[in-house]
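Students often ask why we bother encoding 3D structure as a string. The short answer is that it lets us treat folding as translation between two languages. Here is a chain of 436 residues written in the first language.
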Amino acid sequence: MKKIFLFITALCCALSLSACSAKKERPVTKPDGTLDKCSLRFSWWGGDDRHEATLKAIDLWNKKHPDITITPEYGGWDGWSEKVNSQVKSGTEPDIMQINYDWLISLSPDGDGFYDLDELSSQLDLSQFDDEVLSFGKVGGKLNAVTVSVSGRSLFYNSQVFSKMGAEYPETWEDLIALGNSFGADGLYPLDLDIQSGGTAWYLAVVYVQQQTGRQFISVDGRLGFTVEDIKAALSFYRQLEESHVIRTVRTRTDEDGNAALYQSPEFIGGRVAGVLEWGSAVGKYESVLPEGVLEAGPLLTDEKGCSDGWLIKPSLLYAVSKHTKYPDEAAAFINFLLNDEECAEILGTTRGIPASKAAETALQKSGALKGLAKESDDILSSADTMTISPYMELPRMKEFYNTAIESVSYGTADADTAARQMFDSINNYLEKIRK
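And here it is in the second language, the structure alphabet:
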């Protein structure tokens, strides 16, 4: 993929957030290169497809390593970040954690929040990863986490609904707007944006403006690249999607779905909502609630000249080890199993995206499992001139700013000018605060 930037310098410069407030330090257990009998906690979030595959992988590990028991802790995304933050604050986090990209800023701004995986090379084979991919997990020169996969959001559509409507998947922003009229006549929506997942609606608006202006919303080092006018254009575009019946309004979505995520919504499952914007590494949860083969990947939207710039990619997930673990060698061995073991790769498939590990990718190619929507999404994004998302863009506080602005223009409590100015000031002030 193109325009993948190195993040070591930017993450080295990030300073502590409230989640990293001081607590009583405990000595870090040094690795000794041997595997001892123990029990380890492993936490992750995801949909049912990821849960089922991961539990099967843990069963395989426990058979291969009966002296090292893995205790699973898992759930959906909603509230998961807050839960892990609480655990880290109190020093009760699991030994091994699936982490999000932005957690490196919030939980390890100086590189000391997680175990340095470079010290565990006797159990963890890092030669299966490109240096560029490994750099995503480095903070302050320390390897805090290993990237599981690199992913981006793509557009996915209910092929049965589109076929019934006699419609083609949109290729340009204008095509998407035009679909609102034809779908709206039948009470349908060609797309919807899951505000419950945090930032999905704003993400699409950002891509649109980045494509128009060539400016990146937030830079790698946490500086706002959009002007007030850019933010106004993004909010106006979002409002246009609602007014054109491309997506539901926030009020309609809330009335019909409550707090449910879009993949759990009867409106999506029943086909009234016929499209979603989702990470290729997480689309399985949408795919699994529809009949097999119904959900299909569509093209990335372009401008009228066919320019596909502005779409974003990132490390979709990373694995980290608690700096408080008493069993670093054993934790590293389990991560190596998850990332590089051939049998494990076949079990996990693409439930966390296309593996960044060469060994795992090769295993999936050999077994014929390197296919499906995650692979299609990866191929589509690989052909575009993508940008790597700033980790600052995904911080929870930032998502609050996005959703506040989106909701205000959707409900009509503020016009785009006012909401844009408020959002611009809030983001600038926050980024300046956390960079100090």
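Translate back mentally: The chain has 18 helices and ten strands. Keep this in mind for the problem set.
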